[in-house]
Amino acid sequence: MLPVVVHMTPPPPAGGLVSTAASVESMIWAATVPQDCLEHLTVARGDAYLSIVVFVKALDLTHAEEQVDRLMQRTLGQAPPLEGWTVTGCAGADLRRLTQ
User: Fold this and answer.
1) Looking at CB atoms within 10 Å, which of 6, 9, 37, 98 has the fewest?
2) SS3 of 56, please?
3) Which residues on adjacent β-strands are paired with residue 52?
4) Checking phi first, is residue 98 left (phi over 0); if not, alpha (psi -120 to 50) or beta?
5) What is the band of 5 on the pLDDT scale with cuts at 50, 70, 90?
6) Beta strand segments in 1-100, E
7) In this predicted model, what pLDDT tens digit does every residue of 19-44 receive, in sequence order?
8) 41, 28 in Cβ contact below 8 A?
């Protein structure tokens, strides 16, 4: 399982925020297809951003980032409460580096 950190921002000016982190998590799960290989995710909501950590099964971090980016774009296209939101970052996290 590989982690990918995603950052999202609402449309300007200070676009609408979704109600809860749990609702965003539900929207992502609803947009998921088997090819995403999604295992787990967690969402943190700030005043003008969302931070999401997504864990997927993938060959390597590059593939994990591609899978998660496709999932996030699909979610944005399918979830009306996220209309106008933008993925501003999608990067794999190499957790091995933290333990060395």
Assistant:
1) 98
2) strand
3) 6, 43
4) alpha
5) very high
6) 2-9, 38-45, 50-56, 86-92
7) 789 999 999 999 999 999 999 999 99
8) yes
- Residues linked to residue 51 through DSSP beta bridges, in sequence order: 7, 44
Residue-wise pLDDT for 38-97, tens only, equals 999 999 988 788 999 999 999 999 999 999 999 999 999 999 989 889 999 999 987 766
- As given in the structure block, the two tokens for residue 53 are 């950590």
Size of the chain in residues: 100
Q: Is residue 44 within 8 Å of residue 56, measured between CB atoms?
A: no
As a whole number of angstroms, the distance between CA 29 and CA 24 comes to 9
In sequence order, what are the residues at sequence separation of 6 or more whose Cβ sits closer than 8 angstroms to the Cβ of residue 40?
1, 54, 55
Residue with tokens 């200070």: 14
Greatest Cα pair distance in the chain: 43
Q: Which residues pair with 60 in a beta bridge?
A: none
Q: Which two tokens stand for residue 19?
A: 């109600």
